[in-house]
Fold this protein.
Amino acid sequence: GLCHAGCMRLGVLTSGGDCPGLNAVIRAVVRRAERAFGAEVIGFADAWRGVLEGDYETLTVERCRGLLPRGGTILGTSRIQPYQFDDGVQRVRKTMFRLGLDGIIVIGGNGSLGAARDLCVDGVPCIGVPKTIDNDVAGTDETFGFDTAVGVATDAIDRLHTTAEAHERAMVVEVMGRDVGHIALHAGLAGGAATILIPEVPFHIDDVVAVIERRRKLGRYASIVVVAEGSMPAEGTLDMPSYETDEFGHRRLGGIGGVVAQELERRSGMECRLTTLGYVVRGGTPSSRDRVLATRFGVAAVDLAAEGRWGSMVGLAGTSVVPVPLDEVAGRIKTCDLDLYHEVAEVFFS
Ligand code: F6P
């Protein structure tokens, strides 16, 4: 290739839950690195596992052909972090040294970006690229993947409206959103939900029942209730499903929609059905908007690496892509715009 001694060498990895647009970022990283800087890009398999175990491939523009519309990640992903192992950081440094890498572009969510910040402190240069359908990364107005997830969920809600009307039923739709309700709020707004439950605002099942009963009095039997998986009933009002915790300390959510559907049916006497969208909103091709954002992030991440601005993340501020210190991102969560919830969405909770 174009690369010669002294020229930049970058690692790239995708970490945590997958999301539409990961491949678009990888493609943009490789294109920018190769064409603008004659740099070589090494792609690590399954996030930090590939770095720890030296499992990687050299990525070229040729290898990235056809990637733009493809969901998932060609590199694979995992939740493994170097800090889970006593010699983790040492092993990361060893791989970097062996491959002659200047730094690593970490495409990840809150957990992975926090680890990237810590690694920078420990002498492993990283640039962060925020990724998650949940849109809960601080320091960026939006993450790629979010728009696709909202689009798929909205499409599902549109479809549920017609079957709900045909049967005069209430439909509960559970969507992902572990700590935040961005997807539920946006898809609920876009899909004309009768009410929306989000983790940021503990809910009262009586309020949900009241909405359904009010609608029924008006002859509007069909209702859509959108529930983010991380939603919680107000203290002492309902029993929660029991959530298991995986090996990474991640609670395996899912089930609150079922609790809501069951209680709604029991209390209102109205027929109620549950649809859990789950991983459907995370799979498949990214929306055009997410492809553009992912591409802009990938190009900007390489430019930051070329400027030696390690310890930064690329973020969207308004319409601009800007560098954000990982220090300002790590350990934080971007919650929903509560004005949008209370001042706009609630107008339609009836
Ligand atoms: O973090 C994104 C997310 O979609 C969460 O909303 C969800 O709880 C989680 O991923 C589940 O992912 P996995 O089962 O892959 O851990």
About this structure: Residues 14 and 107 are 5 Å apart (CA to CA). The mean pLDDT is 96. The pocket of 6-O-phosphono-beta-D-fructofuranose is lined by residues 17, 109, 132-134, 176-178, 229, 250, 253, 282 (CB under 6 Å).
